[in-house]
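Mods, move this if it's the wrong board.
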Amino acid sequence: MNASSHFQYLLGGAPQTKVASEKLDLLAKTAARRYLHERLPLNDTIRKMASENDLNSAQIERVCEMANIATHQGLWAKTAQKESIAFDLADSKMIVRVVGNGTNGAPPCGDCGPGPSSTEAVVPAPSPCSDADYLGPPRGIPTMGGSLMSMLGDPQVHNGLGAEPERKRIIIVIQKHAAARKTLQEQLIYKGMELESLEKRAYETVKQCVLGGASFALVYQAATGAGFGKLAEQYLPLWEDKLIDDSHGDAKRRLVKEAIGRAPEGLISDQLGNMTIINGAHPVMISLDTIQRKTGEIKNGIHNLLRIDDEVKVFTQRMRELS
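Not the wrong board. Structure tokens:
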């Protein structure tokens, strides 16, 4: 055999590797189609086709990879809930063990004799089976990486694309909510302490105003006219009782005489209407305004806290459903 015979496969007809590749692709699509339409396991179909077509181990591995991809694509197109896609993957190692094609998959050539001994010089010589090297994958060449199955950890079952990521996402969201809730609780405690300080400061301001000659009724009317009617209804009676208890002599008798009762509902309103606010920068009005702002901040914080708790309940229920 001359040297040109070794390259005959390059000079005439279609390359054998291309034909083999098309054939492997056809086998993989056939296995995937039988699974999608008849629910035949991929391993059973590919094992039968490997025996009938005398596939080697590399070809079996390639058919398994393409069949897994084709099956996933078919299920993806047919399934509305993408996260629920799951099927048993084709396992090339198991099929090779059952079919018994060895490690390299190429059957031994009967015309080839035993290899040279360690003392004999290796002289390349043409042989009837030399073209068999081109029927299988190259041997003795180190690979740069593993197969698709090995990179996936050789999974036996495709558990879908969304189940595990969704569970991890929910855990991350719950952890973030827990951190946000803790921060919000600390802020509420701090704002509560600020509110107590503002209430004490407002009491002292009202006390100075009343001891200076104004009555609680006059302070009440001014606060209502400035839009602080609800705060006045809440705080002024308490501050009046406290100031009466702390006072003595004529001041106490005057406070008792001028003590205000519960204001009529018509007087307590957030709508000022045609009323004109006079001296809105009065210390009493300023102190009531700071209390109202801080109370609003606390109410918003409590609302956000309840919202976080509700969302955590929803995510916790979802975690139970995924378990």
